[in-house]
Amino acid sequence: MILIGSRALALRAPQIIARRPLDFDFVCTKEEFTSWMDKNSHKVNPTKVYELPEFNKWIVEGSTNLEFEIIKPGTSAELLVNLVENDPDTIDTPFGLVPTLNTLLAIKDSHKYKKFETSRGCATWYKNAIDWHMMTMAGAQIQSEHKEFIALREKETYTHKLPVLNVSSKDFFDSNMNGVEQTFIHDDIHKAIALNDKPAYEYYLKEGSEVMTSKKKFYECSEHIRLSGIIEEAMTLALERSLISHPGVWSPDYAFRFALAKVASTICGGYFRSYCFLNLFEAIKSYPKDFFEKFQKAVENGRVRYIAK
User: Fold this and answer.
1) Are residues 7 and 153 in the same domain?
2) What would the mean pLDDT of 100-125 be, rounded to a whole number?
3) Residue 162: its pLDDT value, please?
4) Are residues 56 and 120 in the same domain?
5) In the predicted structure, residue 170 carries a pLDDT above the cut 50
6) Is residue 163 part of a domain?
7) Measured distance CA(71)–CA(64) in Å, rounded
8) Beta bridge partners of 27
9) Both 95 and 137 in a single domain?
10) With contact defined as beta carbons under 8 Å apart, do 106 and 82 qualify?
11) 2: β partners
């Protein structure tokens, strides 16, 4: 049986994790799960035990919640067993085998772009992102032997499709607004909240494209322009999908953080998403807190135009 998640991280590197772990996450065989329940279920007073067959998991809810990922042939869990059992730095504890910090990072890395839809899901996503950044700051690294495991676990984890960029701006926005009706001209919003003389994405658009950007141009830009790019995308997303379409529900700060997490996970892909994830907390620290007021003033003076009905 292998212990993963925040409990494993607290045992392996307690200086990294500031919160008190609440749940237990195990990777084990079905026989190990059954044996554990026979011996220990009285300790957690289970109120609900159920299977999630599509995820190869059993969930135990009680005074403490537990998740058991069942090892099956051909899954990433099977690869994880081989990694952990063959690593001389794995430690054996009363809770099970605890992987090395590098292996725990590989698990975190494999779902750093996992899709979420709710506030609770966003909170979980940020918790994982914080752990990932803290682990890398502590020196954890993805090693060559982890790459096959990460690739398979990503395949098992990521079921969402990324937006198609090689289309006109109208087709892009029509297909990616998730049912949210646009009120204002999108490009006007970008111009109104731009942090520089023009929207950052205009510095790295591919020649002749209205939506698709160039990785080469992006990394030829200054760090300021690159950071501006992810901040502006998150502010525009926060405005269109939250602050305009659902007024008064979320604060501008929360709407921005939620939108930023979307940019760093499922709204974008490739190099832009990776850059956003790596610079997540710099973006939170740097974004202009008055962006909503700036947008409202731009509407009042006609710089942001309504879409003609």
Assistant:
1) yes
2) 96
3) 57
4) yes
5) no
6) no
7) 22
8) 2, 69
9) yes
10) no
11) 27, 97
pLDDT in tens, 43-74: 999 999 999 999 999 999 999 999 999 999 99
Q: Are 295 and 189 a contacting pair, CB within 8 Å?
A: yes
Confidence at 18, pLDDT banded by 50, 70, 90: confident
CA distance 121 to 130: 14
Confirm whether 285 is domain-assigned. Answer: yes
Q: Where a domain ends, among 157, 189, 214?
A: 157
For residue 14, tell me if it sits in a domain: yes
200: nearest Cα among 228, 165, 233, 235:
228
pLDDT at 171: 46
pLDDT grade for 163, boundaries at 50, 70 and 90: low
Whether residue 211 is contained in a domain is answered as yes
User: Does one domain contain both 182 and 106?
Assistant: no
pLDDT of residue 160: 62
Q: Which residue has the tokens 């999108």?
A: 186
Q: Beta strand pairing status for 91-93 and 66-70?
A: unpaired
Structure tokens at 21: 């772990």
Q: Quote the number of domains for the chain.
A: 2
CA distance 272 to 275: 5
For position 208, what pLDDT does the model report? 78
Q: Which residue has the higher pLDDT, 254 or 211?
A: 254
Residue (of 187, 185, 227) closest to 211 by Cα position: 187
Cα–Cα distance list, 201 to 143, 198, 205, 210 (Å): 33, 9, 6, 10
- Shared domain for 56 and 146, answered yes or no, is yes
Averaged pLDDT of the chain = 91
d(CA 94, CA 84): 16
Q: What is the pLDDT of residues 253-272, one digit of tens each?
A: 999 999 999 999 999 889 99
In CATH, what number is assigned to the domain containing residue 152? Answer: 3.30.460
Domain hosting residue 204, numbered range: 169-300
Residues 6+ apart with CB under 8 A from 111: 128, 153, 154, 157
d(CA 81, CA 221) in angstroms, rounded, equals 43
Picking from 94, 124, 157, the residue at the C-terminal end of a domain is: 157
Are 149 and 10 found together in one domain? yes
